[in-house]
Design brief:
Elements: H1 2-7, H2 89-97, E1 102-103, E2 106-107, H3 118-136, H4 140-151, E3 155-162, E4 165-172, H5 175-194, H6 201-213, H7 220-234
Antiparallel strand pairs: 1-2, 3-4
Helix pairs in contact: 2-3, 2-5, 3-6, 4-6, 5-6
């Protein structure tokens, strides 16, 4: 059997040695590594004008979205719990402006042209941010975030039936509700200041945000925060 395998060009199990008669392969050429192309970095700004900012209040950091977007409009793509926190903060303010005449369960003032007109409302909000930038000389998104942090209420009062009387109790306000109520106060204050008056809506909204960012008592949102927290303190 050994002599048979030596004379034959076949291996055991019928495998042929194809490399026995071939010449050695020439060495491979060394291929120079190609230069990696530099990735183009795209930088987006709000309305193509203002950079995103950071939220300093840790309790509201996860509920105020200031990521870079040219047009702050999600068109209802967010779903699920806390979906509003994924929306841009300027878009949430614009949506509050669309029902700016709503107080409690009724419309005290007509919202007029803003009913369903998101394009009209977002233009007014952009003009208000431009006025803030001109007056304060800084990023208006930073002023807006500071205004929300200052005027976001921390506790409020709830009422419940206790026997034959209505009991009141102080409770801590949820972070997302703090942002929602603050934006609602901004919208209501701006619309009331400009309703049937010479002052434009953008100017009124800018004045309200600037006053709230400074913690001034001229801000309607600051007044409401102090009033609600005073009631909560008396209901403990």
């Amino acid at each position: 059997m050994e002599d048979q395998y030596e004379q034959s060009d076949r291996r055991p199990h019928g495998r042929r040695d194809y490399n026995s008669d071939r010449a050695p392969r020439p060495p491979r050429k060394q291929v120079k590594p190609q230069k990696q192309r530099e990735k183009t970095k795209f930088t987006f700004k709000l309305f193509n004008r203002w950079d995103p900012v950071e939220v300093s209040d840790m309790s509201l950091r996860d509920y105020i979205n200031t990521e870079a977007r040219i047009v702050p409009r999600s068109a209802g793509i967010h779903r699920g719990r806390f979906h509003k926190s994924k929306m841009h903060i300027v878009e949430r303010l614009a949506l509050k402006m669309m029902v700016s005449g709503h107080t409690g369960k009724k419309h005290k003032l007509t919202s007029g042209k803003f009913g369903g007109g998101y394009t009209t409302v977002i233009k007014e909000v952009e003009d208000a941010l431009a006025i803030i930038e001109k007056k304060e000389g800084k990023n208006p998104l930073e002023v807006l975030v500071k205004a929300i942090e200052n005027s976001a209420l921390r506790e409020e009062v709830i009422s419940y039936q206790l026997g034959s009387i209505m009991a009141r109790e102080a409770v801590i306000t949820a972070p997302q509700r703090r942002v929602d109520k603050t934006l609602r106060y901004f919208a209501q204050a701006a619309y009331r200041s400009a309703f049937n008056k010479r002052k434009g809506l953008a100017q009124a909204l800018a004045d309200e945000i600037i006053a709230a960012s400074k913690g001034s008592s001229d801000s309607f949102a600051m007044k409401e925060k102090d009033r609600v927290e005073r009631e909560a303190t008396g209901s403990r």
